[in-house]
Task: structure prediction
Amino acid sequence: MEVLYYRDARSYSKFQIGIMDKEAGSSIEGPLACQENWEIALLARN
Result:
């Protein structure tokens, strides 16, 4: 998750997870948040 978040400049640090279960039905968890750390940006090359 962290790699995808850092590679996509239009992403957002909060997300929701949808869960579907045959017996329990469906539910949505969140919003959850990724921990942000932009120090890795110094290592990125274009």
